[in-house]
Amino acid sequence: MSENARKSKQFFEDGVALYRSRKLRKAVHCFDEAIRFNPEFAQAYNNRGSALSSLGKKKDAIVDFDHAIKIDPNYAAAYNNRGNVKSAMGHKKDAIEDFDHAIRIGPNYAVAYNNRGNVKSAMGQKEAAIADYDEAVKLDANYAAAYHNRGSAKSAIGKKEEAVKDFDHALRLEPKLSKAYNSRGSAKDTLGQKEEAIADYDEAIRLDSKFSVAYYNRANAKYDLGQKEEAITDFDLALKLDPSAAQVYNNRANVKADLSRMEEAISDYNEAIKREPEYAAAYYNRANAKVSLGRRKDAIADYSESIRLDPDFIQAYYNRANSRSESGDKEGALEDYTAAINVYPNYAAAYNNRGNVLVALDRNEEATVDYDEAIRLNPNYSEAYHNRGNAKTYMGMLDEATVDYQTFIRLAKLSGLKELIDFAEKDRKFIEDYEKSKSGGEPAPEAPPSLPSKPEQAPALPTTPYKDTVSEAILFLDMAGSTEIMNTYGGYHFFQLFNKLEDMFIDVATKENCLYRKGLGDGFMSVFKENAEAIRTSIEIMRAVKEYNKTADEQTTIDIRIGIDYGETNVRHDGDRLGIPVSAAARIESLQAGNFSQLQINKDELPVKGRIFITYIAYSAIKDNPDIKCSEVGWAELKGIEGVRYDIFLVDWENSA
What are the backbone dihedrals phi and psi of residue 564, each rounded to the nearest 5 degrees, phi first? Predict the structure, then answer.
């Protein structure tokens, strides 16, 4: 070995030791010297690039990795390291190309698979990321970080139980991996295992006392358990460690608002907005606090800003409508309720409250239509029955109004809510007075006051994890040709068919543990914990309809279409669901050939009825189930969810077991 080679080797080894002890500048100096004595020392360029990257000098690091690769085109580690730096700089696609190259050179390079998975996960390609993590742990069964990362990706697509198993595995391999405790806590939190989640956050904090995210997550879990003061203490600690975290201010403010400390809450929302000026939820939440203080004008301004930032913010439209109505701006309130309904057509409370505004404007017939729709969406909507009774009273339809009041009295009693039960006495008094007026010649009684939806305001919005957010399978079923049936044979005929379909659906869905179901006029939305339950329900209802149609004539034949997606939904106080999976399931149910950006089958082979469409996330949960047969249809962007690719699969329900 030449003297220069010997010196280069020594400086390189010293640099490696300094790098491992995190003395990065001294390490860079040693690698400089190693390169000076041996300008073709590829490893020295690679290691200097890693040290420079750790010092924040990303561009200089890439120059070094480029040089290392130029010297040794088969240097897999240099491609891997360059990929990491490119990813950190936001060049995700270029990073994936580097990881691809590293894997081609070293097919057993577990680290490159893990890192490529990290980039894919950051790009929202969770399933592809999981495939890379699978390969990483297959190549290295002791790769704790890969198990953790796979768990995080699974958690993000709603596979919380599987995620917990991966976090468990990571912790068995590396018991001091604080981030795995935090991640497992988050998954358990979403599964409703709050106490276990807090125990995990405790351990994460014990291992890393400066883990601000763990304090934040523990605060959210404590709030969910009603431990409000303890939650504020944890939010305080999180902010002490990271004063720039807007979402921590937002959530601390929500707790303070819940404790009726409104001025303090507003101060926190101010801080959240100061740090993140386009934080729509913080404007919305601050507006709610201002409403509680009677500052409706200021609240309306905040709702308006939240809507400007997020034009589909249905809760903001709804709450601004309530404030406008209370402030006397009935026309403005009508516009906002209508906007909320346009974004979310199944928003029963918006129909009810819009009906109340229409009654106040003496537009009682229009109001009745809104109450009808609210009741169709939620047949147990007690307030809507009462309010429809009022509208009918104002129109002189007192006998029909009495029927609605009686329904309200019955539902109020079933609810067990003292406020509704007490209010029902007003309706009972109206009915008594009306009966007296019919028999004794006394004037007809005046209608009782209208009832707004409860709660009057949509709730404050936390930053994830949402208080009432769960991962579920959403199934939309549509009765095909319903409009044509109504127009051709009339409403009575249609509802006879619909009731028959409803009976079949309830029978099947109940057996598969349906969590929630609601009618949609010409179909149903239903919720299941698992994709397999939703898909089995779809298969069985298709078969039940086929069997029914064997003895039906042309007028009584039923045709249906079904769409299924899986993901995180926000559970409303009445059990209804909001969220992307709800919108996606409704959209894919009605997809036609022209809606697809790319089809894997001939468009003439695409069934228009008697079909079950599912998204890739739903498909991935059952793809290994030999009893359920599926085929790929193609991919599409869905209306209202533009920019997101949805791969669609067709369930072969006739040939599934």
Answer: -135, 135
Q: Which residue has the tokens 């003895």?
A: 551
Cα separation, 51 vs 164, in Å, equals 34
At 105 the pLDDT is: 95
- Of 386, 325, 378, 318, the closest CA to residue 348 belongs to 378
Q: Which amino acid is at 76?
A: A
Look at residue 464 and tell me whether its pLDDT is greater than 70. Answer: no
> Which pLDDT value is given to residue 184?
96
Give me the pLDDT at residue 468, please.
45
Say whether 166 sits in a helix, a strand or coil.
helix
Q: Are the C-beta atoms of 543 and 653 separated by less than 8 Å?
A: yes
Q: Are 371 and 384 in contact (CB under 8 A)?
A: yes
How many structural domains compose the chain? 2
Q: What is the CATH number for 642?
A: 3.30.70.1230
Q: Please name every residue paired with 523 in a beta bridge, in sequence order, or none if there are none.
A: 478
Compute the distance between CA of residue 145 and CA of residue 114 in angstroms, rounded to an integer: 8
Share of the chain above pLDDT 90, in %: 60
Q: Is residue 482 part of a domain?
A: yes
Nearest partner of 357 among 382, 395, 322, judged by Cα: 322
Q: What is the mean pLDDT of residues 512-530?
A: 83
Q: Which tokens is 333 given?
A: 């309130």
Structure tokens at 613: 């469409």
The confidence score (pLDDT) of residue 264 equals: 97
Quickly tell me which residue has 């079909």 as its tokens. Answer: 611
Domain stops at, among 407, 426, 455:
455
| 475, 446: one domain | no
For residue 534, what are the domain limits? 469-651
In the numeric block, which tokens belong to residue 295?
């500052």
